[in-house]
Amino acid sequence: MNKPQVRLKDVAELAATSTKTASRVINGDPRVAEETRVRILAAVRELGYRPDPTARSLRKGTDDTLGLVIDSIADPFFANMTGTIERLAIARGLRVMIASTGRDPRLETTVVDDLLARRVAGLIVAPTAPDYAHLANASCPVLFVDRRPEGFDGETVLVDDNGGARQAVTHLAAQGHQRVGYVGGKMDVATTRSRLQGYRDQVQASALSDADELVRIGRNTADEGRAATEELLALPEPPTAIFSSNTRCSLGVVAALHACNRTDVALVCFGDFGLADVLQPGVTVIDHDPGAIGQVAAETMFDRLAGKQPQEKNVMLPLRLVMRGSGEQPPAVRR
């Protein structure tokens, strides 16, 4: 038989105080006498009282929850970023409600509207939808991460995707490579478009081969990255180096090069990943540190919840070239 639910009234009676005072102590209000606070907390422990988050939300008008809308929790980048946001939010007494959209704009619109209807305290979105005008009057702070929202002047935490791609190509050109292949995702995402443009810009600036046959786009999975690499290596004049523009593709690119015994092909990947530093050769990466993005996003949201205004609306985090061997190889001579 289930025990009856312990009410706030029960705590107040055991502590010989009012329900209002008990509520203030449970919610962290310091303006209560120490003796009274100790009695109330002892009653909470003795009775096993747990506050009802739904009732609390109704009283406050908002939930103690952050909404987080991402592409997929299975993506290493978003998994890392999400873990950081969730850890920091829990430390602040906030919960995180995570929604994966699979880059489906209609699904994203649906889950964003649902989270707002639940009156979340704040909303963090990795945007894919074409229009965010309806968020201009959102009932909570809204922050965009990883990419800019199309047609909407929202607050953002980003990295320089274009600059990172240019840095990768510049590094490979410095090793003597003239034919640098590109493997990247679908063009419906701003980060993909920016990285491809950065690649193209730097290929021209470095006077490298700009043949269209060196570019493989629309590849969002490890299997697709592997297939793209096999296609590049099968060209009559294959690239001597490859730039992989997202982590999921990179896993397939690395697998293909090892399976074909072509680790002599230089490689730079956008985004670090597990085992990148233990492979032979180690994988050179443009590290965009999703944990740092998550930390800045979480701290920015905490500031907005506290009523602090932003010093800068758009935060651009630095990238870092991590040289491990694969990107430092000169063009191989194969007969």
From TrEMBL:
Matching SUPFAM superfamilies: lambda repressor-like DNA-binding domains, Periplasmic binding protein-like I
SMART domains: HTH_LACI
KW Translocase (keyword) present: no
Domain HTH lacI-type: 6-60
Keyword Ribosomal protein attributed: no
GO molecular function term, any single one: DNA-binding transcription factor activity
Keywords, ordered alphabetically: DNA-binding, Transcription, Transcription regulation
PANTHER family: HTH-TYPE TRANSCRIPTIONAL REGULATOR GALS (PTHR30146:SF109), LACI-RELATED TRANSCRIPTIONAL REPRESSOR (PTHR30146)
Protein name as annotated: LacI family transcriptional regulator
Native organism: Cryptosporangium phraense
